[in-house]
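Researcher: Sequence of Osmotically inducible protein C follows. Predict its structure.
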Amino acid sequence: MTSVPDDRFELPENFGPGSVWADRTGERTLVGRTQRGVEIPIGHGEGEVSPGELLKLALIGCAGMSTDVNLSRRLGEDFAMRLWAHGTSDEKQNRYLAIAEEVQLPLEGLTEQEVAAVVKVFGRAVAAGCTVERTVVPGAEVTHRVLGVEDPDTPEADQA
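Model: Prediction complete. Tokens:
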């Protein structure tokens, strides 16, 4: 089921595959949506996911997906895995200073060398394939633009 935003606002020029959006539903609450029809309540209330929780979920979700194929070769097709992300934002700086990821895997019965290989494969797969971590760790440039408002830094705005 493909989804597009309702017609309250025009679609932005950059709307395309991978675009997501969030609609305000009340004071400091939104519903995040994907083009595949997924809806995520965003906020700090019951049944809502906070933006910080979404960030941590994005990191461990990406790590899990990036390592899945390689780990299944070593642990079997139906291996169990649970990923955790821990981190509390620093209120003074209003940012996360660190996010710690942890993974639980069925390592019983493996030799020390096999466990070491699993750990190495996990780290390499995340480093090579996790787009979210590869974006967050070096620090992605994030821009903000209010659609429908002329950018004050454009030459046309300077002539006004």
